Amino acid sequence: MRSPAAPFPWNEAIGIGLGVLRLSPDAFWTMTPRELALALQARGLGVAAPLTRATLDDLIRRHPDG
Q1: Contacting residues for 50 by C-beta, under 8 A, at least 6 apart
Q2: Phi-psi region of 44 (alpha: psi -120 to 50; beta: other; left: phi over 0)
Q3: How open is the CA angle 30-54-21, to the nearest 5 degrees?
Q4: pLDDT per residue over 8-58, tens digit each?
Q5: Is residue 31 exposed (0-12), middle (13-18) or buried (19+ Cβ within 10 Å)?
Q6: pLDDT value at position 30?
Q7: In Å, how far from its chain's centre is CA 20?
């Protein structure tokens, strides 16, 4: 049996996007995860390894749009 994955760390992501990167809310919410990761990397902040396809598929399954 697979252990449940941790939920996405929204509080941390929003805090970094708005507080550290000083993005406007509109800019933050229109960014893709890849764009956010690249912005963090450009600021010299460590980012996690890219998602694997399996992890992305799992996230899509657990958090469907609409």
Answers
A1: 34, 37
A2: left
A3: 30
A4: 788 888 998 999 889 999 999 999 888 888 888 888 776 566 778 998 899
A5: middle
A6: 95
A7: 15
- The amino acid at residue 31 is M
Instruction: Look up tokens 């657990």; give the residue.
Output: 62
Structure tokens at 17: 């996007």
Cα 33 to Cα 36: distance, rounded to the nearest angstrom: 5
**CB-based contacts of 28, cutoff 8 Å, min separation 6:** 14, 17, 18, 21, 36
Q: What is the pTM of this model?
A: 0.54
Going from N- to C-terminal start, the domains of the chain cover: 22-62
